[in-house]
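Pilot study result, target chain (313 residues):
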Amino acid sequence: MLHALRLILAAASLFALGALAASSQLPWPDAAPTPSALPEDFAKAVMPPVIVTLPGMGSVKYTRNLRYTDVNDPNVLMDIYQPAAAREGAHAPIVFFIHGGTDTRAQPKDWGLYQSWGRLAAASGMVGVTFTHRLGFPKTKVVEGATDVKAAIGYVTSNAAKFGADPKRICLAAYSAGGPMLAPYMVNTADNVRCLVGYYPFMDIRQTEHHRASETAETREAYSSILRVTKSGRKTPLFLVRAGRDEIPTLLDSVDRFIAAGIAADYPLTVANLPGAPHGFDNASAQDPRAREVILETLWYLRYHLEVKADSL
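Predicted structure:
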């Protein structure tokens, strides 16, 4: 699969690439300002956009600050990015971008990282959904986060026509501590969940300090994706991105053990390895051609599994 994606990537002219975005300033005039609640060093890490740009990212349609659930938290909100040039009557597949653990007051959906992923999806013919959910840090709140992810899927699929979206073609993309949110969708999930993507994600939360302090043993097992690969039934294809120099304690170990378990169980797994890459490389490693390559491979993986055709743009 990965070899085929690279061949398509080499031959295609559809994605004529723009310049790398290495600055901390978002390149779109309508971009949200840096949240004042973020410490300066943290803002420098999360506000830069993804290092790859595509034509049309600046002109996508968007809807901001939707209340997608009745949770009593004013920060649990959603943004939706739609292709700007979709033909009339077209319904684009949906990609949900699931952030890692943080205080909801930090509004991850407003970070340059997720704004740009939403725009990349829309510029690639998909509906990008970014949303703040309750997965926390240092108190992890895994069940609350998973409840919000389910609510987000339900909200967008119920309102799909309003956003030009196809509720029958969905992918979930999780980042960092958002990795456990993939576990419920790995085996025997609804047919409309076509694929999963994990970027430097926790794939086993049984051993991490913060999860052990915050969650019951039952929750840690239920949301450890490594325990799902051996389950019988329909298995959802997964594109897993490994950052070879990930600094987060126990995370890289969980990824490596998951890869071994997935291969042993013959799980439909595609692995992209970035030697020497840090956690959060996708908006930080502008000088690394492999990082750029993997981001493009991710977009092609999404387009392949969600059946995005050139004439849909």
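One observation from the pilot: The longest helix spans residues 142-158. A full batch analysis is planned for the follow-on phase.
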